Amino acid sequence: MADRRPDQAEMPPSKRLKTSDVKVKASTLDPTTNPYLSHRYEIADIDPENSGFSNRNGYSNGNSARTGLSDFKRHTTTAKQAHVAEDGPNNPFNNAPLSNQYFNILETRRELPVHKQRQEFLDMFQKTQILVFVGETGSGKTTQIPQFVLFDDLPHFNRKLVACTQPRRVAAMSVAQRVANEMDVKLGEEVGYSIRFEDVTGPKTILKYMTDGMLLREAMHDHNLTRYSCIILDEAHERTLSTDILMGLLKEVAIRRPDLKIVIMSATLDAQKFQRYFNDAPLLAVPGRTHPVEIFYTPEPERDYVEAALRTVLQIHATEPEGDILLFLTGEEEIEDACRKISMEADEMIREADAGPLKVYPLYGTLPPQQQQRIFEPAPPPARAGGRPGRKVIVGTNIAETSLTIDGIVYVVDPGFSKQKVYNPRIRVESLLVSPISKASAQQRAGRAGRTRPGKCFRLYTEAAFKKELIEQTHPEILRSNLANTVLELKKLGIDDLVHFDLMDPPAPETLMRALEELNYLACLDDDGDLTTLGKLASEFPLDPALAVMLISSPEFFCSNEILSLTALLSVPQLFVRPASAKKRADEMKALFAHPDGDHLTMLNVYHAFKGPEAQADPKRWCHDHFLSLRALQSADNVRQQLKRIMETNEIDLVSTDFNDKDYYTNIRRALVAGFFMQVAKKDPAGKAYKTVKDDQNVLLHPSTVLGVESEWIVYNEFVLTTKNYVRTVTSVRPEWLLDIAPNYYDLSTFKAGEIKTALQRTLDKIKRKQAIKRGR
Amino acid sequence: MPSQDLNSSNPSHDEEDGDDYMNMVIAEPSAPKEKETYTQRRLRKQRESEAKGRVKSKAERAADEAAAREVALSKSLLDSENKGLAMMAKMGFKGGALGSKNNIGARLDPIGINMKEDRGGIGLDTEKKRKFREEVEKEGKRVKAEEGEYRERVRKEREDARLESLFGAAMRVAERMDGEKEEEEAIKNGQVDEITKRTISTKPLKQINVLWRGLVRQREEKERDRRMRYDLHQSLSRLPTYDDPDEDKEDKKALGKDKIQHTLVEDLEEEDPELDAFIALDPAERLHKLVLHLREEYNYCFWCKFTYPDKEMDGCPGLTEEDHD
């Protein structure tokens, strides 16, 4: 494979160069340059094997074939040509007259740093199959590069699309909206987006922003991604799990499809790694529009980074000239707490020291979008004419590091921590832990201070600590994740040799081993590592394999409607709201829905109540009164719809046990075991602690649980690693079910001697005796 | 059994009720074979339930948790038999890292888990460790230093004691030589009769050369103490200085309460800053001064134990003890 690469990489560009040379020479005399004939020339030349003519006609829908792009020849266009087409008067893509707003935006677009290098970009894009593009935040790469590509790749000439992936749903949505505005088209028509459980694209779509995970899902059904003529992987430096898998996949697809163009976009200068990985692909770098940032370190390590951060923010407010502050903290609770404290202290400063007004905004992933938008509000004006200027402070997680661009930030306070996902196959825990950031992250954070004018970054650690304690780059997500889902996806992508699959950073062998083992126990893979029927079915669902298997097997337990709801509920963020100011009241409200057998059943009760007439009359009010998150419930509703559709296509029955049947809840608990039999813990004979099955980790029930009775055996949804080991969202189960439903996993010969094995053995003996008695009768 | 309580309280579980009865019957056969008395049994049950019922403290639990985690985290799964591993082997896994062959430096072990338990800033732990290490090092140095100091002190004490005894000897030599010299002079002057008196010094202490005055003073103090004891023994329970108003001059003379003794005692009680200053000197220095004195006055070398005939002291290797080694 490897030795075939260089030829393959070189062939298409050289070919293309030749043809383009010929064309340029010929254009002076050739009648094909006649604008009235150019579309025929175009189609005949570029897409000889496809019936391009009819395609083209189909696309233009019988309208006049003349658009601003009619003279364009794929992969030979220039920045100048595009410039002319952009100037209108009609939209080059749909021939509609362009609006005033369009021209206003066009002006600002042409001031973006990437615009200066449009020709340079086109030259490289045309010459090579894979291009690495480095542009710092603020260079305009995410919005502009896909448009540059559109004007040269002209995907609609071939009924194809350009895809641009984003690591985050929010980014995919907001960037698509922005670009639709820039192109003066309606979102969902020429420009659309596709994220999990939401597809806003149409038959006219030529540019699709999507999450990297969505593109991966599409690749499962279309291994060569034939719908696309160009794929742009944006924010590749973030190295999400899906981006890494996509890169591995694209490396192979590029060989099979020489016509496919690939652009890897990264914000950091670690681009050599990408170049090397893609067989020394050429690189284009565009400088960001940044100002110098002065960096300050503390002379001594801090005892309490939160306290130090608050102190620093207030000090900046008291002593530094005008300019907004961005403070990085790790999580929702810490951020809300910090916001409260800063506001309080600032009020005092205003009263007593005549400081300027200060507005504090939190920013984290689970914050409702309207509230996230508030960070873009301008800083407050001075309290009185001639008074000291106002300032805004944004206290955010690392989503403020790269994905959101906030203008006006001049001061950055960086304590050096973020919450990062960790996974260790040895104890099978995937959890979010507060960990030191990397040097690259620290630089990224500092850079945020220099967006509008020269800024300052206050690092709450010593320079020596920066040099010695921080790792160079954040570990890519693939090294920090449970890969069960990924392995299932790779299998579905047609990759059988997972051991030698060429990833940029292959995970530890044990991680793959665990994933294969898990999938084998879930009966998604057979002992040879091949997909089973169940596995194929499970991969249809955008869910973790355990959830998917639970859902698929739920008809056997006569409760697929309920399990469908539960799966949806488990796929959305926290349902219950517990504000610090009303903890007791919130707990009382939760108790209304509590089921003594566990949290899963309680969540189900909540959902059923939410769908009831009383709640539906005024859902907002009802959720508020019951301390529930309307957003979470609504999105659960949406997810349920999507999953239901997948179930229907795959002919999975939707059934329910009669609610008055004594086995209504038992059936649901048994169905839970079918998916989560690997997440079971047994109570220690002494004390409150539990011990996880097979891994022997001591865990406590998370304080949020409603599990009222002392349950001997529980299934849990999540193992949370904090200062204590907690299991969250738990429901009590019976050991007989474990042995009955998952006999492979509960093969007692594979258990270590101990309390759990003894207890299971006792249960097994009991079952055998019972059966013997039955037979005896 | 709690789970059974749960069932009976929940009507949806009575399907399992038969099991409880079965279970009770079956649990019994594990009773001990040997017969226990009622008391033994009761005590055993009590002990067992105590052991079972003891709730571990939070700290113990946390320690257990952490220990179990560390054990699990430090053990590679590749050593054990495992279905996943078997599947990987079928894909051609032969140990080592994953990925394509030319991917050098791919990961072999999973990333470790570090739990942050406080709000300490970056570098604080290392700083703490560094400080702790420094503290330990300092402590180590201090102990070592103390050891050295002790040896040095003992050595010095021994040396001082040795020098002190040498000094004592030198003082005796000096006193003798001084006496001999005075005698010679007396003989020259024809005052032979006074020689006998020399044994008991009548000279006031302050007239004696400070270099060996200490010796004389010590002797006189000893003599005084001896006499006082003697007086006590003689039941003349009076201090020699006691001035009995009943005794007249004649009595005193008869009782031997002479003036001499009087002055002697007074002399001893008098302050002697010169001597104190001299004694405060280092024994080595005192000795050195005395040795010099002997050489200058008597052409005597304390180290050679020899009186040279002239000032040149030809044949003496030098001034110090080391010179004579």
TrEMBL record, chain A:
Pfam families attached to this UniProt entry: DEAD, HA2_C, Helicase_C, OB_NTP_bind, WHD_HA2
UniProt key word Nucleotide-binding: yes
Gene Ontology molecular function terms on file: ATP binding; hydrolase activity; RNA binding; RNA helicase activity
Known catalytic reactions: ATP + H2O = ADP + phosphate + H(+)
GO CC terms: post-mRNA release spliceosomal complex
The entry's keywords: ATP-binding, Helicase, Hydrolase, mRNA processing, mRNA splicing, Nucleotide-binding, Nucleus
Residue span of region Disordered: 1-23
Superkingdom of the source species: Eukaryota
SMART domains named among the record's database cross-references: DEXDc, HA2, HELICc
Keyword Transferase: no
SUPFAM superfamilies recorded: P-loop containing nucleoside triphosphate hydrolases
EC nos: 3.6.4.13
Compartment(s): Nucleus
GO BP term, pick one: spliceosomal complex disassembly
Residues in Helicase C-terminal domain copies: 312-494
Gene3D superfamilies linked to this entry: 1.20.120.1080, P-loop containing nucleotide triphosphate hydrolases (3.40.50.300)
CDD domains according to UniProt: DEXHc_DHX15 (cd17973), SF2_C_RHA (cd18791)
Helicase ATP-binding domain: residues covered: 122-287
Family membership: Belongs to the DEAD box helicase family. DEAH subfamily. DDX15/PRP43 sub-subfamily.
Function: Pre-mRNA processing factor involved in disassembly of spliceosomes after the release of mature mRNA.
Name of the protein this chain belongs to: RNA helicase
Automatic annotation (TrEMBL), chain B:
Biased composition regions of type Basic and acidic residues, renumbered to the chain: 46-68
InterPro entries in alphabetical order: DUF4187, G_patch_dom, GPATCH11
Biased composition (Polar residues): 1-11
Span of domain G-patch: 80-127
Region (Disordered): 1-69
Molecular function GO labels: nucleic acid binding
GO cellular component terms given for this protein: kinetochore
Protein name, UniProt field: G-patch domain-containing protein
Species annotation: Cudoniella acicularis
